[in-house]
Design goal:
157 residues, alpha+beta, Thiol Ester Dehydrase, Chain A, seven-stranded antiparallel beta sheet, 4 helices, 7 strands
Length: 157
């Protein structure tokens, strides 16, 4: 399977079994293959950004951040595949292709891809959060450094 940035995928339960990070958003009801993840391909590493349908829950969080900080760079609410979705940049994590269960399909059976403008916006905010992290401001919930190190170790073995 050719993995491409901007497409939506599902992850295997096995990934959560081997990565011990309590802050990872795990697959709901093991075997149901949710959430869906926006994927960024960076060489052998794939960055998975979870999507959620709980718009009302996250809208309150976004509103609170907007009041407190005047901005919210960690959660985006956009229309994806015709429905409002929450893009949880704060919950991003690295993984490998071998942990992908399958690509998400649209209702007509085609691979699900995020429209270009939203893809570019997600990439912009993800890169911004990564730059903040290199400056010592970590807005990610998961320990992305530890997980990436574990994934790199798997690649090199």
């Amino acid at each position: 399977m050719e993995i491409q940035t901007g497409y939506l995928y599902h992850i295997k339960d096995e990934f959560f079994d081997i990565v011990n990070d309590k802050n990872l958003m795990t697959n709901h009801e093991r075997g149901k293959k949710r959430p869906t993840y926006f994927t960024i391909k960076e060489g052998d590493i794939l960055w998975f950004i979870p999507l959620s349908s709980k718009v009302d829950k996250y809208k309150k969080i976004v509103d609170n951040k907007m009041k407190k900080f005047g901005r919210c760079d960690t959660i985006l609410i956009r229309e994806i595949l015709g429905e409002k979705s929450v893009i949880l940049l704060q919950n991003a994590f690295p993984t490998l292709e071998k942990y992908i269960d399958h690509i998400h399909l649209t209702s007509d059976g085609k691979p699900a891809k995020v429209v270009e403008s939203i893809k570019e916006e997600i990439l912009y905010y993800f890169e911004y959060l990564m730059k903040l992290k290199t400056r010592g401001i970590n807005l990610f919930f998961t320990d992305i450094d530890s997980i990436k190190k574990q994934m790199m170790k798997e690649i090199n073995n």
